[in-house]
Amino acid sequence: MTVAAGLAVAGGMTAAGAAVAEEAPQHQGGAVATLSGLQTYDQAVIRDNGSSQRVPAGLFEMAVEGGGTLQTYCVDILNPTQKDAKYQETSWSGTSLNGNRDAGRIRWILQHSYPQVNDLAALARKAGAGSLTGKTAAAGTQVAIWRYSDGARVEAVDPQAEKLADYLYKSARNSAEPKPSLTLDQPAVSGHAGERLGPVTVRTDADSVTVTPPADSAASGVTIVGKDGKPVKSAADGSRLYFDVPKDALDGSAALSVQASTTVPVGRAFTSETRSQTQILAGSSESTVSATATAHWALKGAVPALSAQKNCAKGGVDITATNKGDEPFTFRLMDFKHTIAAGASQTVTIPLQEDQPYDFTITGPSGFEKRFKGVLDCRTEGDTLTARTEPVSEPSPASAGGTTAMGGGDLAETGSSSNTPLIIGIAVAFVVVGGAAVFFLRKKSDSTQPSPED
């Protein structure tokens, strides 16, 4: 397949593309939640080159899939939120916090302010703020966070909230990134029938997790076992899980899932597959967290396993390919040929433009197929506020999903975009053993500049 042929596909799915199975995009693990909106907030003012813009500043709420509620602050002041956007718990390395030397100070602020500190009178005394309400405490906390996450010149409108922001900003100390609520090491494994495929190692702060075997395990005979070879229904942090595949199993694949109820650690980042501002966790109720791992096996030939993770340090997505077969696995990415020897593993970085959505499926021998989807969001929207005629007095928190020029109108929740997106459909062919992968890209205008903190 050529790139020219791929460009023709970008406008819509071809008959061949429609035949590709819609496997769910891989989830690295943790909480998955839907943005409910900005709930507890007051006002702040962004200042830039003699201009100013008023924005709401405070706490968002998210509804967790399976049960639970999260409270979050924004770490990308100029980027809008999207209505009902779905978010996934993410490590800092996959967000604009990667490489931010002050990311640990943001976590300190979260741990030492509202809502983690709900004694507002005591918080006000520490900050010399007189008195604070939930709204002004949330606004002051958000302003302090923006100063570190975006390098923004931003002030709280309420004088007491501004005193809190100054206190938090000056007092903040570096704090380590929190561990994930739940994730699986080696989320994709492979091998031959008759083997135990793995290990898949559980990493969690929950007391225990429930292990759900493959949906068709009764028919396929595939079971999930521990390192002792016995079937397992629950696991704990550090547990090693294996797919036990019968010798007579036909070439195929299976998935296991693990789930727990726990409080998500303060400071965990949340990103969306849509263009919606990155959030950082300020508080969590008891919430459902989950993770999934897949296994692929074949009698002979190449037997690949693929997993993906955003790598903001390299400006792309890392594809880790492991081959537990008895023949090499060869594929091409961005016109570069990669061969994974039998028994070997290799990580390939797919370079992407900032804010570039991606959705691609890689196919291989014996019906192997893996889909990866997301958007590369590794920088804040930057420090450039453009073309304003007058500040906005009262932006509506109900405006999530809308964007306006800085000349007026609502800022979407606590963010705005002054860029008119230039949508360019690009398809790059990935030639893979046994099939091909079509890579759909959309690239926005390069007018967005990185923050001076990046």
How would you sum up this structure, described in words?
The structure is a single chain. With 454 residues, the protein is mainly beta. 13% of the residues lie in helices and 38% in strands. The chain has seven helices and 25 strands. Strands 1-2-3-15-14-4 form a six-stranded antiparallel barrel. Strand 19 and strand 20 (336-340) form a beta hairpin. Helix 4 crosses helix 6 (159-171). It starts with a helix and ends in a 12-residue tail after the last strand.
Largest sheet, in brief, is: 6 strands, antiparallel, barrel
DSSP helical segment count: 7
Please give the alpha-carbon distance between the first and last residues: 38 Å
The average pLDDT value, as a whole number, equals 80
In spatial order, strands of the major sheet run 1-2-3-15-14-4
From the spread of the alpha carbons, the general shape counts as elongated
Strand content: 35-45%
How many strands in all? 25
**Helicity, in percent?**
10-25%
Radius of gyration: 24 Å
SSE-based structural type:
mainly beta
Low-confidence stretches: 1-25, 383-454
Describe the SSE topology.
Elements: H1 3-9, H2 15-18, E1 32-48, E2 51-64, E3 69-74, E4 86-90, H3 103-111, H4 120-127, H5 134-149, E5 154-156, H6 159-171, E6 182-185, E7 188-191, E8 196-204, E9 209-212, H7 217-220, E10 223-225, E11 234-235, E12 240-244, E13 252-262, E14 269-272, E15 279-284, E16 287-297, E17 304-311, E18 316-323, E19 329-333, E20 336-340, E21 345-351, E22 357-363, E23 369-375, E24 425-432, E25 435-442
